[in-house]
Amino acid sequence: MELFDVYSLFDVTPVRARGCRLWDEKGTEYLDLYGGHAVISVGHCHPHYVQALTEQAGRIGFYSNSVRNPLQEELARRIGVASGYEDYSLFLDNSGAESNENALKLASFQTGRDRVVAFRKSFHGRTSGAVAATDNPAIVSPFNANHKVSFCELGDAAAVEEELRGGDVAAVIIEGIQGCGGINIPTAAFLQEMRELCSKYGTALVLDEVQSGYGRTGRFFAHQWAGIRPDIITMGKGIANGFPCGGILIAPWFQARKSMLGTTFGGNYLACAAALAVLDIIEDEGLMANALVCGDYLMDALAPCHSERPSCHSERSRGISPSIKELRGRGLMIGIEFDGPIAEIRRRLLYEDHIFTGVAGNNIIRLLPPLCLTREDCDRFLEAFMKILRRVSPSSK
Ligand SMILES: Cc1ncc(COP(=O)(O)O)c(C=O)c1O
Fold first, then answer.
1. Does the C-beta of 36 come closer than 6 Å to ligand 1?
2. pLDDT at 322
3. Among residues 114, 129, 105, 103, which one has the least CA distance to residue 250?
4. 204 lies in a domain?
């Protein structure tokens, strides 16, 4: 049997990893600025994480959610303290898409409504409801498109209000920072308007923090930069550093009902042990602060290459193409948008300089490294990146 061929693969086979480094079967070392798609939050194979998982596997790995699981209770307490949402409740599941699915379902149960408002360039996952709220025709099948989802431009509060006015919208779902759409950051004012509009029309505000959450932007959740409190917050990716885990934080006004939500694997002992170890490491090693420091360092270093900046004109006249059109980011969630395709730049970064990076569309490099990145790691990337930018010519687009 062959694998169902749905992924574009890097031509690298990692066999070992540690911190922000991966090694292939030939022993070549790679710097990881992609974090396995924003999943590796505290670094690969952190000793505390490995020990926590190993010990838990030897104690009890799984039982169903029909018994009390003290690790789930401990995780709820710890996420509450770390995020400042101690008065919310936690439901644990297995992935980002599942979290969004559960959030939309909960909002629909609670409001008795069936419409959703989402945003252009959004990505919320690939399960039925989550993908229906995703603005990408390549991954939304006709079956999924039957869900009642309206899309508004990010930043257009008037358009959102127009949708909410009818009183039939269960949820507005928005990413803390759009990741797959190209690192698009909603302004604080826009998020505050979303909060006000949702309260006014009895609609649940769902913040998808699957990619932007868990300390990546220097706050526990990216929306906390705007000082708002959503009704439901969805999590995934970095929550357990690669052990499958997701969850939603639910505001106190939601009424729980038996069987409303459920899962076989969600919140199992191993996932909880992994997630608790991640919180230990984030706290002990000050990784949220580190994400901000390293993110600012990268943004400051990249800023002079921005094509609209005067200092870049001389570079451009030396024939650099494609050139950087816009830099967007917060903490270690950075998008470098070019005015042309970037496949060649990423190819050289990976195969010549051994640096993994992410991508959005065909012209945005996405940096989503583990939060334990160091200044030396940043310098290694910057040196390689600048060198490549100087060499890439229009013909290599
Ligand atoms: C913002 C956002 N939401 C949801 C998801 C889906 O998460 P998962 O792939 O774990 O289902 C992703 C994945 O990239 C994401 O970036």
1. no
2. 79
3. 103
4. yes
